Amino acid sequence: MHSSLGSFGDARLDNRGGVILEQMLTSKTVCYRRFDETRKSCLGAWRFFANEKVTGEKIIDSWGERTRDAVAGRHVLAIQDTTEVHFATTPERRRGLGQCGHGNAYGLLAHTMMALDADSGACLGLVTGQIWNRETRQTTPLRKRALAARESRRWVNTATAAKPILAQAAMVTVVCDRESDIYPSWGRVPDERVHVLTRVMSDRCLIGAGEATLHTVADRFPVADTATLDLPARPPKHAARTAKLELRFGEVEIARPVNEKDRTLPRSVRLRLVAVREVDTPEGEEPLHWLLLTTHAVDDLAKAWLIVAWYKLRWTIEQLFRLAKSQGLGLEDSQMASAERLIKLTATALKAACIDLQLVQERDGQHGLPASTVFAPAEIVTLEALNPTLEGNTARQENLHPLLSLAWAAWVIARLGGWDCYGKPPGPITMHRGMQRFKAIHVGFHLGLDLQRDVRIH
Q: 356, 330 in Cβ contact below 8 A?
């Protein structure tokens, strides 16, 4: 667990933010009344979110503090997406929340960018984003608004804001779903070190292709290869399955849309198109069909399939959202009374969910991340003291992961959660129980160290 959410320019706020983040992780809830049974803790959390010095923007700014170092020297997939966070309201109690999504849903929109290692898929942390509340309805048609007046500007703004945070990365690929397929993303985001990979939404006009458009050109590309792809489950409607795919790829040049108001954007952009289409789809399943545009060079089969593999990792951010909401912290169950505080809570919950994701991901040690990715120095001291007490007499009951690695730390947490080192690997529930025990042990361990220090002084 990180010792703080980040720097707020006030040591007391920094400390309180860290405590709240720890409590979210161990209690698996954003309800501050359930962090623990003390009134002092409840009031502390309430005061933190009520404090005017703590803002959603400051919490989001703190997301990337540890990520800056974690991405050094890596090819980073900077995955961004938006999730709707719905909160229960009534006509008499809207809590200052605007409508989001379809129907009569009220809540916030949270746009998040997370960093993954492109080679291993390891989550390196959150980067940046924005969380907002639709206080008023937009009545001007979308096509008559400049980008600065559209919510879609978040795709460009977030990618731009991420560049200094990811400056130590060897290369960055910004990965997004269809909603980000806007021409300014292609005209503004890429540079000599930053690439873009996006699923196609708009059937664009092409340069030098006559009457052909992006979709028709994709169908004309010859089938270059076939393969199978394991698709993860997408609860509640879609179970995990294996899809048989046909692969096509080639180069295209997309034209600047005639209705694009920003005429400083390039007149055209040359990109690579990778198309995968499912064949022999099982009955009742929607066929997978991805049209992927990228600034990366794609000149052979291996690179084309690599583009598909990178895009598949985009689902990791959906897992993050589930951990923050329905399958983890229960963010949407919060009863906080104002939109302003719910924005702060959402920013904190997304950070906590990311740490949870990192811990579960690294239980097998495949990614080689250090324990400092998740745990503060004082907590690592506690882990070192605990480790020998949890090892058994057999080889399978030894912590064989490298000392001070995140896998080594996850082994300790799993043992505290009741894992016996046999059977299937520890899952989220086991890790949750282990984190609860670790919290109590950590507090007691360092209280004992402080008492010993006081005795020696006196």
A: no
Helix, strand, or coil (residue 327): coil
**268-279/289-294 β-pairing:** antiparallel
Cβ-proximal residues to 440 (8 Å cutoff; 6+ apart), any chain? none
- Cross-strand bridge partners of residue 174: 78, 196
Enumerate residue ranges in the chain where pLDDT < 50: 1-4, 37-41
Q: Is the dihedral of CA 240, 246, 249, 253 positive or negative?
A: negative
The token pair that represents 204 in the structure block: 């664009």
Check if the beta carbon of residue 403 is closer than 8 Å to that of residue 378. no
In the chain, the amino acid numbered 50 is A
State the span(s) of the chain assigned CATH 3.90.350.10: 53-338
CA distance 357 to 322: 10
Report d(CA 219, CA 319) in Å as an integer.
Answer: 32
Domain with CATH 1.10.740 in the chain: 370-457
Q: Which residues contact 294 (CB under 8 A, 6 or more apart)?
A: 173, 195, 196, 197, 198, 271, 272, 274, 307
Determine whether 298 is exposed, middle or buried from the number of CB atoms within 10 Å of its CB (0-12, 13-18, 19+).
Answer: buried
Among 14, 119, 134, 143, which Cα is nearest to 71's? 119
Assess if CATH 1.10.740 describes domain 370-457.
yes
Query: What pLDDT sits at residue 212?
Result: 83
Tens digit of pLDDT for each residue in 337-392? Answer: 788 989 999 998 898 888 888 888 999 898 989 998 888 888 899 999 999 999 99
pLDDT at 4: 44
Scan for tokens 């639709």, then name that residue. Answer: 134
CATH for 53-338 is: 3.90.350.10
Q: Which residues contact 200 (CB under 8 A, 6 or more apart)?
A: 178, 181, 214, 215, 273, 291, 292, 293
Whole-number pLDDT of residue 3: 47
